[in-house]
Amino acid sequence: MLKINNLHVKLEEEDKVILKGLTLHVPAGEVHAIMGPNGSGKSTLSYVLSGKGGYTVTAGSATLEGADLLEMEPEHRAAAGLFLAFQYPVEIPGVGNMTFLRTAVNAQRKTRGEPEMSAGEFLKVVRDKAKTLKIDAEMMKRPVNVGFSGGEKKRNEILQMAMLEPKMCILDETDSGLDVDAMKLVSDGVNALRAPGRSFLVITHYQRLLDHIKPDVVHIMADGRIIRTGGPELALEVEQNGYADILAQVQ
Question: Which residues belong to any copy of the ABC transporter domain (predicted)?
Fold first, then answer.
């Protein structure tokens, strides 16, 4: 599904190298978690994969089902099946949630050469999916994320993900700012989307999210590269002992 090989990336503004030979493979149907100390490059990885500006790839490759992600414009990466859930979802004043969702869904369908979803079909599907995330009709009428609580913003993003049905879902610290109830609701929404043809890359600081979204593989990232890979027990080790011992082993 997602294959990253020897990826080197620098931040253009500061001419600072952030990713230093990162290699990662997420097979179809698997959930991989990335943990690591602040400044290790976790969010940079998500931004580079999604096509955010301000970064220069100096070496390496990143492909999604064999297609070169780094050569695509951001909208084509999305149409190819890549989805990024932000740590801090942006507000879009003046654009209603329903309008935004239907436009996004049909834009992707058009790019892939598929028929657009009719208004009636869209309403039926979105109401069904919103109900499972406890997103009411009033919330759907509001401008995208405007005045939403942290939990509402994250639930709204999971709804977007459910509607777009991506192949590769990247969750960048989606547990940030969530209370226990909101985290469970968001996690349930993610778990409902797990499927043989869909993969997840979950970036998080905390084991608590991984109590709800069970990963197949856990990677530890530091100084711009993956330094250790293991099963779910690796996240528990980090929770109990921190990163010091793991970092010491690779120095």
Answer: 2-248
Among 104-108, 205-209, 223-227, whose mean pLDDT is lowest? 205-209
pTM of structure: 0.88
Interatomic CA distance for residues 202 and 87, integer angstroms: 11
Task: Count other Cβ atoms within 10 Å, centred on residue 195.
Answer: 11
Do strands 55-64 and 92-96 pair parallel, antiparallel, or not at all (unpaired)?
unpaired
**DSSP run (H or E) holding 243:** none
Mapped onto helix, strand or coil, the DSSP state of residue 170 is strand
Domains of the chain (ranges, CATH numbers)? 2-92+166-250 (3.40.50.300)
Residue by residue, DSSP assigns 182-193 as HHHHHHHHHHHT
Long-range contacts of 94-99 (CB under 8 A, 24+ apart): 94/143, 95/143, 95/144, 96/140, 96/141, 96/142, 96/143, 96/144, 97/139, 97/140, 97/141, 97/142, 97/143, 97/144, 97/156, 98/126, 98/140, 98/141
Instruction: Give the Cα separation of 52 and 46 in Å (integer).
Output: 9
Over residues 88-100, the pLDDT tens digits come to: 788 899 999 999 9
The Cα–Cα gap between 232 and 55 comes to: 31
